Amino acid sequence: MQTITTTEKKSLQVGKYVTTSHVDTVIKNYKQERWVHNSERIGKEDSLSAWWSVEELENFLANAKDNGADGVKFYFGAYAADYQDRPEYAGRQTLVMVATKQKEGANGSVRNKDIYVSTDKGSQILAYNAANLCPPFCGDDSGIPGDGVGVTIIDKGEKGFVVI
Fold first, then answer.
1. Which residues of 59-97 are buried (b: 16+ CB within 10 A; e: fewer)?
2. What span, in angstroms and rounded, lies between the C-alpha atoms of 160 and 33?
3. In sequence order, what are the residues at sequence separation of 6 or more whose Cβ sits closer than 8 angstroms to the Cβ of residue 52?
4. C-alpha to C-alpha distance for 68 and 61, rounded to whole angstroms
5. What is the pTM of this model?
6. In DSSP terms, which residues pair with 50 in a beta bridge?
7. CA–CA distance from 99 to each of 123, 135, 159 (Å)?
8. Cα(96)–Cα(74) distance, rounded to whole angstroms?
9. Which of 5, 102, 136, 164 is the most buried (most CB within 10 A)?
10. What is the 3-state secondary structure (H, E, C) of the chain?
11. pLDDT tens, the chain, 164 aa long
């Protein structure tokens, strides 16, 4: 008699689809609580979004899967004030995608470990950056970043109002 063992794969899904109202709310909160202060600190409008093409995302995800990834972390980051590769990005915040693999610890805790791959330069994190940032590249002439999602009026007190 043969015994068949089956293993149930746990779903790794943690996110969910959200409504336009939810998106507007979290963007508005970000702009009022963080963006306005970041922009004042760096002396120009900080970035509000980072864009990659579907093709880039698919290629990164395929590469991540090929290297054993089962997830992706999005790290918040900021370019150096003297960033030379794209001077218009200097000081602005960005997102970095990093391929991850879920690991369960001895105590049952779950961690998403960054994946490193061997390259001709040694072991390197499997990551992707250099998105199209808005600002400075928002794709319209309206002066309002993006396509209207999350448009917010911020009262800057004696400094007036700003529409973002």
1. ebeeebeeeebebbeeeeebbeeeeeeeeebbbbbbbbb
2. 17
3. 60, 128, 131, 132
4. 11
5. 0.77
6. 133
7. 14, 26, 42
8. 6
9. 164
10. CCCCCCCCCCCCCCCCCCCHHHHHHHHHHHHHHHHHHHHHHHCCCCCCEEECCHHHHHHHHHHHHHCCCCEEEEEEEECCCCCCCCHHHCCCEEEEEEEEEEEECCCCCEEEEECEEEECCEEEECEECCCEEECCCCCCCCCCCCCCCCCCEEECHHHCEEEC
11. 666 665 566 667 878 889 999 999 998 999 989 999 999 999 999 999 999 999 999 999 999 999 999 999 999 999 999 999 999 999 999 999 999 999 887 887 788 999 999 999 999 999 999 999 999 988 765 454 445 555 566 666 676 666 65
Q: Which two tokens stand for residue 35?
A: 């963006």
- 22 burial (CB, 10 Å; 0-12 / 13-18 / 19+) is exposed
For 18-23, the CB contacts below 8 A with 24+ separation are 20/149, 23/149, 23/150
